Amino acid sequence: MLFLKKIDSLIGPLLARLLPRPAQETSLSHPPSRFLFIRPGGIGDAILLIPMILCLREAYPEARIEVMAEKRNSGVFALCPGIDRVLRYDRPRELLSALSRRYDLVIDSEQWHRLSALVARVIRSQMSIGFGTNERKRLFTHPVGYSHDRYERDSFFALLQPLNVNIPAIIDYPFLSVPDIDQQSADKMLKTLQGEPFIVLFPGASIPERCWGVENFGHLAARFRGAGIPVIVVGGREDSTAGSVILRDTPGLNLAGKTSLAETAGVLNRAQVLVGGDSGVLHIGAGLDVPTVSLFGPGIAEKWAPRGLQHRVINRKLACSPCTKFGTTPPCPIGAKCIQDISVDEVFIAAQNLFGLK
Asked: In angstroms, rounded to a whole number, what is the distance separating the alpha carbons of residues 68 and 51?
């Protein structure tokens, strides 16, 4: 990921200027038959893009919808039954497969980096839409404005403006669906709970500045068990040790590193509450209509935090936060005080108040 960002910054602007502008098509042919979405980046962006994909699916139910993603986020789209095929641009054969086709519409949902816009430009299509945040705007037939202060799901819906598609005023939840085989696998892992309601903790984070800390999660797990609420820890292999430490003195189930992304979604689908930081797992839980307690500091809560009465956002709102911009968070000189100052008590109370709402 860091390598691609470096390549993008070094040669992306030059390539974006060298490629000729696309022919300015004004509208789609009717009826359109094939759409391609390009979605690089993390899991959270991919989740928040799905309501827009489903909106386009409803507007054009007969069209074929394909998504070009990458290794770290491609599994997300298995949770969206409205998608016909998922390709990965980091697999040369699959990238070439997309380049060999012609699409009626290509939508690049990347917000800033140029490489995906370059891919959108060279793919044959009648119409292309993407955010015009820098040199990338000259690569689309229809560049769209982007606000860094806007809720990200709404920014993705703005990509439909050139199509005159009716955007829903209210999103139906859940908008994610766990495949049956993955839900059954998750249910087997949860069998020891015998149907008892439980809390899920996700201690992971993409960067250290977003970590609340293993010690805090350990104290929180102990508070839940003291209240008679079972605790499950989820995450990737990198979170397995943290899960063991969190549950070291507290009975619970550490599933970190033991589940696929879809199986993790299956576990979340059975949870009463999810507690975690600004992360892809948080957005999966929200997309499954699971009440959440989210811990924000460096990230922009107004842009990324789940919305609704069953979601609680805890944010210290220090003068120096949020400090993340276009996915980049600078090193913190004060030890991420914005998130470290969040107390175990307030997280426990917020989660306890949500327990039983599902």
From this structure: 17
Tell the residue number behind the tokens 């016909």, with chain if given. 84
How many helices and strands, by DSSP H and E, does the chain display?
Answer: 13, 12
Q: Which two tokens stand for residue 238?
A: 């990198």
- Got the DSSP string for 86-121? EEETTSHHHHHHHHTSEEEEEEE--SS-SHHHHHHH
pLDDT at site 129: 97
Bridge partner residues of 91 (DSSP): none
pTM greater than the 0.90 cutoff: yes
pLDDT value at residue 1? 59
Strand partners, 107: 37, 129
CA–CA gap between residue 305 and residue 309 (Å, rounded): 12
Does the domain at 7-163 match CATH 3.40.50.2000? Answer given as: yes
Q: What is the pLDDT of residue 205?
A: 86
Give the C-alpha distances (Å, rounded to integers) separating 273 from 257, 270, 342: 20, 9, 18
Give the whole-angstrom CA distance, residue 269 versus residue 78. Answer: 15
In the chain, CATH 3.40.50.2000 sits at 7-163, 180-354
Token pair of 200 as six digits:
């899920």
CATH assignment, 180-354:
3.40.50.2000
Residue 107, CA atoms < 13 Å, CB-side half-sphere: 23
Mean pLDDT, consecutive 10-residue stretches, the chain (358 aa), reads 69 82 77 93 95 96 96 96 94 94 96 93 95 95 92 96 91 96 98 95 89 96 95 96 94 96 98 96 98 94 94 93 81 88 96 87
d(CA 254, CA 246): 9
Residue entry with tokens 């800033």: 112
> CA angle, corner 128, sides to 123 and 130, nearest 5?
110
Q: Quick one: tokens of 45?
A: 């962006």
